Amino acid sequence: MQAFVARPEHGIAWISGASSGIGRALALKLAGDGYKVAVTARDHEKLAELQAEASDFSGSIIVLDGDVTNAEDMEHVLASIEYEHGTLALAVFNAGVNLPVHAEELKLVDFEKSFAVNLQGVVNCLIPAVRHMKAKGQGQIAIVSSVSGYGGLPTNAAYGATNAALINMAESLKFDLDKMGIRIQLINPGFVDTLATKGSEYPLPSMISVDEAAEHISAGLKSQSFEVTFPKRFSYMMKLINLLPYALYFRLINRFTGWRERPLKKRGRPAVAHPAE
């Protein structure tokens, strides 16, 4: 039996983190394919610009402002979809931040914000979405993580940790969601040319544009695959590297990133004073 694949006639598509990057490109792609797409982010002006850009498309953009770190906001977004716009057929939880972390200057705020947006933000969207889809008996959910969740990379202590958690979350939820008629997918992009990858401290191979990423995701949403990962050659290389013994893994990552030769940053005073100070 094939899993449910959402189509425009089934209802609304909801994308979080749609004001820029992959979320924005995917919203335009789905609207061009005929979907009514509810878009969520904190920046109303950018969402309004997105809505205007899709004004001549076969589908449309519905602006629903909200902060994914606020569970009440996400309940309101889902309520608006359900009572004002129709059935939620497809949800793509994409909102995320990438804050570089250096062990020589650890900052609590980098971890707190990363966990709040990337991980708790997905949970805040997931709970009302699953409740709605459970009542309807069908639905499709895609969680956007990253190949950085496969294993540790320099500066990725916070970002990579949240992506590893999202991968495990999607895998774990699949067992029950399958029985509920709700299809869950995991989106693991490689390096995409967004604000999150600007200013990287080491080379990022196989970089693709947000439009290419949106094409890959759109195709993956129509497939029967649990994981949608791209570019294939790079993502499978990352999977393979993470099967290696740790001694070899760290040696290869240091070699590819040049991280062993990078000097430590000079540590300044912490952003937040220690309670003992």
UniProtKB/TrEMBL annotation:
Q: Which InterPro entries does the protein's record reference?
A: NAD(P)-bd_dom_sf (IPR036291), SDR_fam (IPR002347)
Q: Which Gene3D superfamilies does the annotation name?
A: NAD(P)-binding Rossmann-like Domain
Record keywords: Oxidoreductase
User: In which domain of life is the source organism classified?
Assistant: Bacteria
Q: Which GO terms describe its molecular function?
A: oxidoreductase activity
Q: Which GO cellular component terms are attached?
A: membrane
So what family is this one in?
Belongs to the short-chain dehydrogenases/reductases (SDR) family.
Can you tell me which residues the record assigns to a coiled coil? none
Q: Does the keyword Oxidoreductase apply?
A: yes
Protein's recorded name: Short-chain dehydrogenase
